[in-house]
Amino acid sequence: MVTKPTKNIIKIFILIFPLFIFSQKIDSAYVYDINDKARVLERNGSFTQAYDLINDLVIKLEGQKDSRFIASFYQTKAGIEQKLGKYKQSIKTSKQSLQLDIQLKDSSGIAYCYNLIGIAYYFLSNFDSTKVYYEKSYTLKKKINTSHEKLAVSAYNLGILYEDLAQTEKALKFYLDAEYYLLKSKMTKSFLSDIYVGIAHLYFYKKEINKAEEYSEKAMDVGLKSYGEFNPNMTFVYNFYANILVSKKKYKEAINLLRKSLKIRQETYGEFHKWTCESNYKLATVLVDDEQLNEAEALFKKAIAIGEKIKSSQYLANAKIQLSKLYLDQNIKLIEVEKLLLSALNQNINVFGYKNDVTAENYYYLAQLAKKKDQKEKFFAFITQTFNSSSYQKNNLNQVVAPFQALDAIVLAGDWYTEAYNKSNDLDFLIKKFELIDQEVALIKFSQRNFTSDYSQIHFANEYRIVFEKGLNTCWRLYNKTNDQKYLEKAFALSETNRNTTLLKGLQDTQYKLYGDIPKDLIAHEKNVKQDLELVKLDLYYEKTAKTPDKIFISELLNARILHSNRLDSLHKIFKTNYPRYADLKYNNKQIEIKDVQINLDEDTQLITYFLGSKNLFAFHITKEKITFLKNEIALDLIEKTEKLKNNLIARNTIHEISKNLYQSLLANHLNKPQNILIIIPDNVLNYIPFEILINDENKYLIEDFTISYTGSVNLFMELKNDFFKYESPNYWAGFSPNYKQNYKLSSNQNEVTTIAKIVNGKKFIGDLSNKKSFLENNKEYSILHLALHAKIDNENPMFNKLLFNDEELSAAEIYLSKNKANLAVLSACNTGFGKLEKGEGIMSMARAFHFSGVPSVIMSLWKVPDKETKKIMVSFYKHLEKGETKSLALKNAKLDYLSTTQDINLKHPYYWSGFVLNGNTEPLKNKKKYYYLISGGLVLFSLLIWRRKSKLNKRY
C-alpha cells in the first residue's frame, strides 16, 4: 500500500523528471526527434500543435550550453510562427538563431536565418528588407555549395518577390532555377507545385492563358502527390486553378474549388489569418462573375474585417479594391468606394511602390470613380497617375510595366471624350477620342507580340474586342460629320485588326521563314517539336477523357507538354534574335489600305466585310471604284435572327420571313446587281449562315443573282491570292471514302468518290485504302483533296476536332501541321465548317485547319448535310469545275442544278442544298480557254472524220 507522503514524492518526481533529464547530458536523438515531429506537424498544417511542441522544447533547451540545438530549434519555431501569422515574433526568433549561428560560424544556418527573416519581412510587406535578406541567403548558399533543395527555396522566394515587384522576367528566371534545383534534389515530396503555381501566375497576368493552364495543371498533379488533397499547401494550387476555370467561364466549378480552399484554410489557420482573408475575397470575386452579388459583398466585407484585425496591408488592400469594383460596376455607394480606394492606395504604395501594376490598377479605379462623379480634374489626374505608375510612354512601350492597366486607362479616357461629345456635340471631343485609337492598338499589338500560342492571342483579342468596336463607332461618326477619308481608312484598318489574326499569321509565317533566311534544318526541327507537342496534347486529351485514366501516364504527359512547349518557345526566340530579316517580316507588316483591296477586285466583283459588335453592326462595301461605310444599331436583333434562321434550317422549317428580314439588315443597302460576284467576310454569329439563301425584294434567293464565296478577312482574301499558295501538283484529284459500319454508315459516300473519280480521271482511296496514313502520304501530291467522310466536332477543344478515316482519327492539330499542298480541299463531310465561335477569329472548324495547313480554297459544310443530296451537288460541282468555271461559280451552278432537277418540293428546302460553302480563293483550277480549244478541236476532228466517212461511202457507190 502506498502512503500519502509516498504519493507526493512520486508527483514531485514526475514534475521534475524532465528537468532532471535535461540537466544531464542532452539526448540528441530525442531532441531531434521532437524537432522532426514539429516539422511534420507544420507540413501537415497542424501549426498550433507544432508550435506548442517546439516552443516547449526550446524553453527546456535555453539553459543548455550547446548552441547547436538552440539555433536549429529557433529556426523551426520561427518558421511555425510565420505560419501562425506572428511575423514580428518570427523575425525576433530568427535573429536569435542568427546570432547563435554567427557565433558557431555555421554558414548553412546563417543562410537559413537570412531566408527566414526575409520571409517574415515579405509578409509584413517590407519588400526592401525582404530583398536584402533573400539575396544574402541565396548568395551565401551558392558560395557554400549547399543542397539543391535549399537553393530551390531561395530561388523560389526571389521569384515571388520579383513577381510582386512586377519584374516578370527576373521572376520567371528564379522560378525556373527553383524548379531545376528541386528536380535535381530528387525529393519525392517537395514544394514543386508552389513553383509551378508561381510560373502559372506570371503567364496568367501576362494573359498567356494556355501557358498558365499548362503549369497550373502540373501544379495540381504534383501537389496532390506531394501534399494530399486537403493539405493547406494545396489551397494555393486550388486558388490559382480557379483563375483558369474563370477564364473558360466555368464559374460554378471555380466557386466549388474556392469554397473547398476556404474551408481548408479556416480549419488550418483559423478565421483571422492572411490566407483566410485571401480566400474570402477570391471566392467573392468569382461570385461576382456568377452574379451572386449579395454573398460576394458579404465575403468582401469579411475579408476586409480579417485584414484589418491582422493588419495585413497587402491582402486588406486587395479586398478593398475588389469591393470597390463591385460597387463601381453597380454604380452604388460611391462615397464608400472613394474611402476604400484611397485607403488601399496608401497601403499599395507602401507595399509595392509607386511604379507597379497593382498601384496602377488602384489609380485606374479612382479614375473610374471620378468619371462617375463627373469630376473632370480628378479624372484626368488619376488617368495621368495610372500612366505614370504603369511607366507608360506612347513612344517607348518597352519600358511599360503595366500594359493592360495603361490600355484600360486610355480606353476610359476615350469613353470620357465620347460622353463629352454626346452632351455637347463639340467635334473636338470626338477628335481627341480618335487620337487615342493608335495608342490603344499599339498597346494591344505590343502585348500580343510576346504571346507564344494562338489560344492566348485569340483569348486576348476577344477580351479587348470592345476597343475596336468603340474605335469604329468614333470613326463612323467623324466620317459622317466631315467626310474626311482618313476616318474611313482608320475604320477599315480597325475592322481588320485582330480579325482571323492567328490564321493569317500562320499562313504568312511559312513564307517569312523561307524569305527570312532561316535554315531548312531549323524549320524542320521546329516542325518536329510542334508535332511532338501536339501528339502529347492529343494523348493527354484521350487519357483525361478515358473511362479509367492512367494517373501515372497523365503525369508523364503533363511533364512532356511543358518540356516541348518550352523547347518551342526557345526556338522562336532563336528565330526572332538570330534572324533579323525574319523578325522584320513577321513584326513589321505593312497595314493594308482600301486602295490595295480595290486593285485586287475585278470589275464584276463586290466585297462586303462585317464587324458585329455588342451593339452595332458595321459594314464596308467595296468595289473597284467605290467604298461605303455603314453602321446600324441592330447587333442584338441580328444575333437573335441568325440563331432563329440556323435552327429553322436544321429543323427544315420555313425560313422565308426570317431570310427576308436578314437580307434587309445585311444586304439591302449594299448590293450592286451588275457586279454579280460577291465576296462575304462575315463576323461573329454571321459565320453560321449561308448568305445565298437570303431572299431579296423580288422573292429570289441571293444565289440566283450572285456567285458567292466567303473569307475570314480582307487581309486573308489578299493573302490567299498570293502565288505562294498556287501549287503545281503532280496529280489532279484524290478522293477518300472510308467504309463505315453500323451507326456511322454512309449510303452514298463511296459511290460519290467513285463517280467523281471517273469525271476528273482521279485517284480514289475507298474502304480500307481510305486511311489516315494514305491521306498524309498523298496530301502534297494532288491539286484537289476530296474527303467524303464523317467529322467529329469538339466545341470545348477545337484542336481536337477530327476527321474519321477507316482506321484512325485525324485531328485538327495534325492537319494544322501537315502542310498540305492542295489548291482545293472539298470536305464532303458533316459539320466541317462548324465549331467553336471565337468572334473576330471566326469558327474554329476543320475547314480552318486546312486553311492553316496551306490550302487556299476549302469547301465546307455548315451543318450535318444529307448524304444523297450531297452526292448530287458534289458530282455536279466537278462537272462545272471541269469546264473551267471558278470554284465559286461551279458550286453555285451545282446548287442551281440541284434545284432545277429536284422534283420533290420538300427536298428543295435550303437544308438540302445550301450547307456547303466555299471559303478562300475562288480562281478556276482548269483553264477555261484551254477547255474551249479542246472542245473546238474535238468538233473539228469529229467533222473531219464524218467527212472522210462520207467520202469513202461515195466512192463505194
Description:
The structure is a single chain. The protein has 957 residues and is α/β, with parallel strands linked by helices. It is built from 41 helices and 16 strands. The protein has a six-stranded mixed β-sheet, sandwiched between helices. Strands 3-2-1-4-5 form a five-stranded mixed β-sheet. Strands 9-10-11 form a three-stranded antiparallel β-sheet. Strand 6 (731-737), helix 34 (749-760) and strand 7 (763-766) form a beta-alpha-beta unit. Helix 2 (28-43) runs parallel beside helix 4 (67-83). The longest helix has 29 residues, at 928-956.
Key phrases:
single chain, 957 residues, alpha/beta, five-stranded mixed beta sheet, 16 strands, 8% strand, disordered C terminus
| Quaternary assembly | single chain
User: Helices and strands: which structural class?
Assistant: alpha/beta
Q: Could you list the spans in which at least 5 consecutive residues all have pLDDT below 50?
A: 1-26, 929-935, 950-957
Mean pLDDT: 87
Strand order of the biggest β-sheet? 7-6-8-12-15-16
Distance between termini?
156 Å
Percent of residues in helices comes to 55-70%
Roughly what fraction of the amino acids lie in strands?
A: 5-15%
Tell me the Rg in angstroms: 35 Å
Number of helices: 41
**Secondary structure: number of strands:** 16
Biggest sheet descriptor: 6 strands, mixed
Shape: globular
